[in-house]
Amino acid sequence: MDIETAKEPVNPTDTPDIEVAPGLCQPLRRRFRRFFTAKQLYECLRPLFHMTYIHGLTSFYISCDSKTGKRAIKKTIFGYINGIMHIAMFVFAYSLTIYNNCESVASYFFRSRITYFGDLMQIVSGFIGVTVIYLTAFVPNHRLERCLQKFHTMDVQLQTVGVKIMYSKVLRFSYMVLISMFLVNVLFTGGTFSVLYSSQMAPTMALHFTFLIQHTVIAIAIAVFSCFTYLVEMRLVMVNKVLKNLAHQWDTRSLKAVTQKQRSLQCLDSFSMYTIVTKDPAEIIQESMEIHHLICEAAATANKYFTYQLLTIISIAFLIIVFDAYYVLETLLGKSKRESKFKTVEFVTFFSCQMILYLIAIISIVEGSNRAIKKSEKTGGIVHSLLNKTKSAEVKEKLQQFSMQLMHLKINFTAAGLFNIDRTLYFTISGALTTYLIILLQFTSNSPNNGYGNGSSCCETFNNLTNHTL
């Protein structure tokens, strides 16, 4: 085509339509969907264990075979070195904060004898707590692997009763937990240090590291625990739905021996897809018993792995909530005679946000455990409902065995065996919090200088506070 012809007007109907090949858009859609879909147990937990592997909490990660596409646990030497390096850096940074006259974020807001003591207690508890979390998460990795193997075994047995597990929901749940924990951590850390820098404060790099790593490690530990309780809850819901489906069949027709395979396609719940009941009721109950036994074993193994981590997190959270609530109450009640560059709004906002942050940590732990426990308690009622409806001696015997198993095998999560992690913990923490707040407020009102002063050192303040108490 020459220039003259190019200048001529062109009929729009004569121009060919330029279409983008649909094949170019499909790979992007497939990659996006693949990012939120999973077909295997290890695949749905892959982002979670990549996060723990990077932060040195586990010595393994979930690898993918390029040929078969199967996921599996892969241990590396770097995982062990990475964990040891994280612990060493953490110990060094905490030692620097103690050397810098017990430096903490709260100490930049105001100083008093009680805040010196509170800072010392928070630094020591944070140092011990994060070290315990690292050691109890890093050393007993075999319990975590054993727990995952039990979940894999019970998933295979669930398929025998016609339950197809939707692992994509677990993957999305793990994404939701990790992203929410990350956003809360980044917003709180960024907001805290921006307030300090806006007031011409210069916190050390050691304080930056200890403040960030403490919240990050606690957030990751809570995320892992929440995902494992979610896995337990899912499988308990599946077992309960299988038993309810069996009860529904008995309600619609009289119980009689199954002479031929009868297929009934029925949606179970949001966790599983569909079940095809093709077995005798006695076989279904027997397999449900075996699956329930594996669920209880997996929950017990997970409890052994997380028990000291949960005790540490709840202890740190309780200590920080006590002192933060005390600082806020002292300021709002007008008893505080602090000399600070910060306004009252900034002061109250920081300590209130930190208190809410650790309250969310406790609530996440308790609610995850409580949901799994409540789902396990529903199984007994369904079994006894079936026991009242059946007229078959064989099925009745199986249900009685299931009832005995439910009496001896119960799902329970504890903090090192000291207290149960359920909603009764709210009442325990509330009572203890009220008691310690009253003690701190009375100590401040009885102090000669109203409890405030500059103090020479953290250690002298701690000794004076101990002698005053005695």
How does this structure look, described?
- With 470 residues, this protein is mainly alpha-helical.
- It has a domain at 101-254 and 280-446.
- 71% of the residues lie in helices and 3% in strands.
- It is built from 15 helices and 4 strands.
- The strands form 2 sheets. Strands 1-2 form a two-stranded antiparallel ribbon.
- Strand 1 (60-64) and strand 2 form a beta hairpin.
- The longest helix has 52 residues, at 281-332.
- It is globular, with a radius of gyration of 29 Å.
- It starts with a helix and ends with a helix.
- InterPro entries: 7TM_chemorcpt.
- Belongs to the insect chemoreceptor superfamily. Gustatory receptor (GR) family.
- It is a multi-pass membrane protein.
- This is Gustatory receptor.
- Its main location: membrane.
How helical, in percent, are the residues? over 70%
Classification by helices and strands: mainly alpha
Strand order of the largest sheet: 1-2
Number of strand elements: 4
Low-confidence stretches: 1-24, 255-277, 450-470
Report the β-strand fraction as a percent range: under 5%
Shape: globular
Please give the radius of gyration in angstroms.
29 Å
Secondary structure tally, helices = 15
Our measurement of the CA-to-CA distance between the termini, rounded to an integer number of angstroms, reads 102 Å
